[in-house]
Amino acid sequence: MSNSKGRLARREFLAKAALGMAVPSLVPRCVASGAERRPPSERVVAALIGCGGRGMALLDIHHDPRCSVAAVCDVDRQHLAAAQQRIGRCDAYQDFRRILDRRDIDAVLIGTPDHWHAAITVMACQAGKDVYCEKPLCRTIVEGRRMVEAARRYARVVQMGSQYRSIGRSRQACEWVRNGRLGKVHTVRLSHPPNPTYPAEPGQPVPSQLDWDLWLGPAPWAAYHPKRCHFTYRYFMDYGGGALADNGVHMFNVVSWAMGADHTGPVTIEATGRGASNNLYDVPVELRVRYEFADPPFVALWEQPGSGALNLDFVGTEATLSGFWDFHLSRGQADLSPTRPDELHLERSDSHSGNWLECIATRNRPVLDVEIGHRVTCWSHLGNIAYLLGRKLRWDPVAERFRNDDEANRLLQTAYRQPWRLG
Question: How many other CB atoms sit within 10 Å of the CB of residue 211?
C-alpha cells in the first residue's frame, strides 16, 4: 500500500470512529496490550520525539492495539539507538523536523526537555499532527498560551502528560474534596524535597554522539556540561524550573482538579527561597510559595522541603485528607466511601495515553487538554517569577498578565535563540 493510500485509509477509519462506528471501549493497558493488533490502516501512526527517561516510558503506547510507533527521534544517538531497539522496526532521526515532514505520521509524543515543548508542539499542530506533550507543558506562560492557540487553530488533540488525571486513586480523592466530604477545603499544602546542588564546574567537551547545538535549540547558548542535559536540565531556569515545574505540575494538576480550578489561576503569589553558593544549578534549593485563589476561594502553599516528601494536605473545616500516591485522613472524621451515584463524578480515564488515542478517534478534548495543562503549568512559572522578583505579585488569570507590573510581565516570555522562533 502506498503512503498516500495508507494515509487515506487511516483518515477514513478515524472519521468512522468519530461517528461511533469503530471506537473501541477504553481499556486498561494490561488488557489492551494483550489484544489482537489491528491492521496498519486502522492504527494511529505515531512518532516519539525525545527518547530519554520519560520518552522511553512513553514508548509503552506501542503495545496499545490502536497505535504503532513508526519513528523515534533524539539529539543523543545513544538514546536514539536504545529507543529503536525497544521498538524494533522503526525509523530513527536526530532532527525532529524530519518527523514533522512525514505525511504518514498522524501524531507525536514529546518527551524532550521543557524548553523544547512549545516550539515542537506548535510546529506539530501546524503540520496537522495530534500531540501528547509531557509535563510541564511549557517553559514560559506565553509559550503555553501559544500552544493552546495552535491546538485550536489547527483543530488538534493535545494532551499534557500528567498521568494523575488517569489514576483512580487521584480521581477518588478529588471527588471526596469536590463533594464536600472534608467540609469546606480552605487550604492545600504541597510538600516536596529540596532541589539538589552540584559544585560549579567549567564546561566540558561535547560527546560525539550528542548534537549539543540542537539540544540547546531556542535556549541561550551555554558550554556543554553533562549535568546541563538529560535528567538534570530541570535544575536550570533556561531549560526547566526546578521541582516546582517538575513534580510540582503533577501536584498542581491534582489540586486544581480537586478544587474545581481548571478554568482559572491564582490572583496573588508570594515566594521566598534559599539558593546555594558554588552551585552549578540556578534554581533555589528551598522554596516556599503562597498562592491565593478567588474562584473558588482557597490558599495553596508550596513548601519545599516541607515534610521532605511528596505530599498534599487538603485542609477542610471537618477533616484533612493527606497523601499523594494514596490518600488517608490525617485529621478529623470524614466519609471516605466510594463516590455515590447522586454525587459529582469527575471525568474517568484509566489510561492517559489511551484517553489520548480515544480522543484522536472521536476528536473530543482529552482529560488533560492543553488548556488545562497550560493553566496548571502557569502555577509553577508564577511561583518562580515571584521568587525571582522577591515581592508579592497580583495576577489576572483571565488576561494572563500581572496587574500594573511591567517588570513582572517581561518575565512571561523569553527570547528564542536564532534561528528558532515560536510559530
Answer: 15
